[in-house]
Design a protein that fits this description.
Elements: H1 6-17, H2 24-30, E1 37-41, H3 49-52, E2 58-63, H4 66-72, E3 78-82, E4 95-101, H5 110-119, E5 121-132, H6 137-148, H7 158-163, E6 170-177, E7 180-187
Parallel strand pairs: 1-2, 1-4, 2-3, 4-5
Antiparallel strand pairs: 5-7, 6-7
Helix pairs in contact: 1-4
Length: about 190
């Protein structure tokens, strides 16, 4: 039996409560060019993708919550796709950039999710995962609140996220700032 879809339930209110905010660090780490095909994996309502869609011709938002994707579908320039991130419906090497913002701690299987995002990443492409930094006390409180709300959240340290990536296939970097961790993977060309 499937669990309660917290995100589908929250989708109509999500945009009013949690505003999309694109940090300079995320924009810099992504380094999107107009010719990039970009996937926002676990992108929900498209709150981040909508802030990036003018920088590229193709911006796909993949998410398992159809309620969230309905909201994303109402935003200009976004192409919503319903999918579990552990099994993306795209060919190998489809995207120049793959991003996942504030979602890795929500997926069912983090190792499979990272492997799948790397599978759809083109050689020479970049994956950027932005997560709340669990080493921060404030984020530890958020993690506790999500556990109490019976969400399946499982936060990882930046280095643990990096360890999920095949270092023989690319280079991994971890950056931190303002209760946030960014893990970047540059796939060998």
């Amino acid at each position: 039996m499937a669990g309660f879809d917290h995100f589908g339930f929250l989708a109509p209110f999500y945009e009013r409560v949690i505003r999309g905010r694109l940090s300079d660090a995320l924009r810099e780490h992504l380094a999107i060019t107009p010719s990039c095909m970009v996937l926002d994996a676990g992108g929900g309502t498209g709150r981040i993708a909508q802030l990036l869609h003018t920088e590229t011709d193709i911006m796909v938002v993949a998410d398992a919550s159809l309620g969230m994707l309905r909201e994303a579908g109402q935003k200009e320039g976004l192409r919503p796709v319903g999918a579990e991130i552990e099994g993306l419906p795209f060919a190998d090497g489809t995207f120049d950039r793959v991003l996942m913002v504030d979602a890795l701690h929500h997926v069912r299987n983090q190792r499979e999710t990272v492997a799948e995002m790397l599978r759809v990443l083109k050689p020479g492409g970049r994956l950027v995962i932005e997560e709340p930094d669990i080493e921060s006390v404030a984020v530890k409180l958020v993690a506790l609140a999500e556990k109490l709300a019976l969400m399946r959240s499982h936060f990882l340290r930046g280095e643990e996220i990096g360890a999920l990536m095949d270092k023989s296939a690319g280079d991994v970097r971890v950056d931190r700032g303002n209760h946030t961790v960014w893990v970047m993977f540059d796939k060998h060309g």
